[in-house]
Specification:
This protein is α/β, with parallel strands linked by helices. The protein is built from nine helices and six strands, in the order E-H-E-H-E-H-E-H-H-E-H-H-E-H-H. The chain has one domain: HUPs (Rossmann fold, 3-Layer(aba) Sandwich). It is globular and about 45 Å long.
């Protein structure tokens, strides 16, 4: 079967850390392509300010343009309700068809929190989990298996370089007049400044219960 990576997140803005993560997963697991899926609204931060989808999609298109194995999808943006991974995987499975095996790209920190996500048992039935190493996070698969049966068989651990880039920090740097050059693709940097994005520092509210944000 064809293996397609699904990389979800707000991508506000997309940065080199996202691109490196996608490429590491693609290479390690032999994925035909990786589809970036921007979220409409993170379920655990219903009041968090998010840049309009028009801008986030435009920045993603610019960032992945040089890489033919990367693509974008509006599957989350065009759906009603919260951005739940389980529901997204069902929609993408129907869209791609039965000959495509889905591989959900996530960080080790997200795997640790998987039991708190919406219908995690359905997630591990619908997709393989490409779990990217994160400093300070060592998932206990035996403990996770007791909470989410099937997670061990679904998990594939992927090493990646330590990249300390944060979308939240990038927005705050722009608001403070500090550079983001070399942290985002050059075309994304130009877009951010031309569109006047992130000129006011955002204040992220405390997390509420529910599924964590996908991809930052």
């Amino acid at each position: 079967m064809t293996r397609v990576g699904v990389f979800g997140g707000t991508f506000d803005p997309v940065h080199h850390g996202h691109l490196i993560a996608a490429e590491e997963a693609r290479s390690a697991l032999g994925l035909e392509r990786v589809v970036f899926v921007p979220a409409r609204q993170p379920p655990h931060k219903p009041a968090a300010p998010i840049t309009p989808a028009l801008h986030r999609l435009a920045m993603l298109a610019l960032a992945i343009a040089p890489e033919p194995a990367f693509a974008t999808s509006r599957a989350d943006l065009d759906a009603a309700g919260p951005s739940y991974t389980a529901d997204l995987l069902v929609r993408l499975g129907a869209e791609f068809g039965p000959d495509v095996a889905l591989v959900f790209v996530m960080g080790a920190d997200s795997l640790v929190d998987l039991p708190t996500w919406h219908e995690p048992e359905r997630i591990v039935r619908l997709a393989t989990l490409a779990v990217l190493a994160r400093p300070g996070y060592a998932p206990d698969l035996a403990a996770l298996e007791r909470q989410v049966p099937g997670v061990t068989a679904a998990t594939r651990l992927v090493d990646m370089p330590r990249i300390e880039i944060s979308a939240t920090d990038l927005r705050r740097r722009v608001a403070a007049g500090r550079p983001i050059r070399f942290q985002v693709p050059e075309a994304v940097e130009r877009y951010v400044h031309a569109a006047g994005l992130y000129r006011v520092a955002d204040q992220e509210p405390a997390a509420t219960s529910g599924e964590p944000r996908r991809g930052g």
